[in-house]
Amino acid sequence: VDVWSVGCIFAELWLRKPLFPGATELAMLQWIFAVLGTPTEADWPGHTSLPHFVQLDSVAPTPLERLVSAAPPDALDLLRRLLRCNPAERLTAEEALRHPYFTQDPPAAAEAELPKPLSLSQRRELEAQRQQAMAAVGPVTARA
Fold this sequence. Notes:
Shape: extended
Number of strands: 0
Low-confidence stretches: none
Largest sheet: none
Order of helices and strands: HHHHHH
Structural class: mainly alpha
Number of helices: 6
Helix content: 40-55%
Distance between the termini: 50 Å
């Protein structure tokens, strides 16, 4: 399991937007290092020997508390551990599932309490209602 991606999605759930919105590989690395800080040999031994390594300007990390301010401390700790640049220091999927974040209050809902997905007929009925409401409103035009 790619826990780096899990960390990116976890952050996006809190932020409601991507944590690393780069459009190219280089832009993505710049975003990652702006958030996590540029790795050093002490942080990630041997990373400078990886294929296609490019030395970027050294950047200090940005505190996740500032970026993901709505997340509680246990969520921030999980996020930090999922987004370690050094893969050897990153949590495994099993370790992540044992993280205290998942046992803190409020407890997770029981499966029976979760909302059920709409059936196909219910989705069709809702879409028909939406189309009727839109037709009643008429075309929407922008105001100057």
